[in-house]
Amino acid sequence: MELWVTATITAATFLISLFNAAIGPTGGLQLALVAGLLPPQISIPTHAVITGVSSLARAIQLREYIDWALFWRFVPTSVAGTAVASFIFVQIDEGILLAIIGLSILLNNFVPYQRILGRKAAPFMDSAVGLITGLLTVFIGATGPLIFTYIAAGDRERRCIVATAAACMTQQHLIKVVAFTFISALLFQYAWQLLIFAGAAILGTRAGAGVLNRMSERTFRIGFKSVTSLIALYLVLSGLYGSGIR
Q: Which one-letter DSSP state was computed for residue 23?
């Protein structure tokens, strides 16, 4: 890995992690960055390591705000979904999946369905989202905004949203890191670069968490909905275009 590539990914990882901790998901910006600079066989595991460490740092720093009940309902079905998707190959149109995720994000942002369904539906919904995102993360990996907006739809406080989403995403990404460690020796070949990227992710997360603590609830909600809605529109349009739907 060339020095300029390492430096570029390190600087960008710091900024992306800062944004993730302060506002929310970046819509695959980290994956787009590493995919554009690294060969495919190393870009996917590198993205998993960086995003997994960044999510873990957010979860640790904001651990007192995590909704553990939601987390423990989410994890078992998420693991099951990832395991099933890893062992069973299904030919799925990626464009349609992206469009569905984009529409789901808009639903989470603008339709108060969780309040309509009530608290009794929460255990089922948390487990269902875990299963769905666990399956989808293997095929496209663009599940972060969906997890974030699902948790935000429950009217939770801003730090609870970021912390709980970080905990859920940590589980999904680190499972992929473990899988790549066994599948490929490339992670060991680039170990020192990955340590630098991980350090940048941790520092960016610390800075972003400081911004989040100082931010008002209203500012967070406006920024969060604006960013995730733009991501959703992008996913819908790119999904429809990619699948050939006109």
A: T
pTM of the prediction? 0.86
Specify the amino acid at residue 147.
I
174 closest CA partner among 201, 211, 146: 201
Three-point CA angle 82, 138, 31, nearest 5°:
135
pLDDT digits (tens, 9 = 90+) for 22-63: 988 776 778 778 878 887 667 777 888 888 899 999 999 999
Q: How far is CA 76 from the centre of its chain?
A: 17
Tally of structural domains, the chain: 1
Is the confidence at residue 244, as pLDDT, over 80?
no
Cα atoms found within 13 Å of the Cα of residue 1, Cβ hemisphere only: 26
Q: What domain range is 8 assigned to?
A: 3-242
Structural contact between residues 14 and 199, judged by C-beta atoms closer than 8 angstroms = no
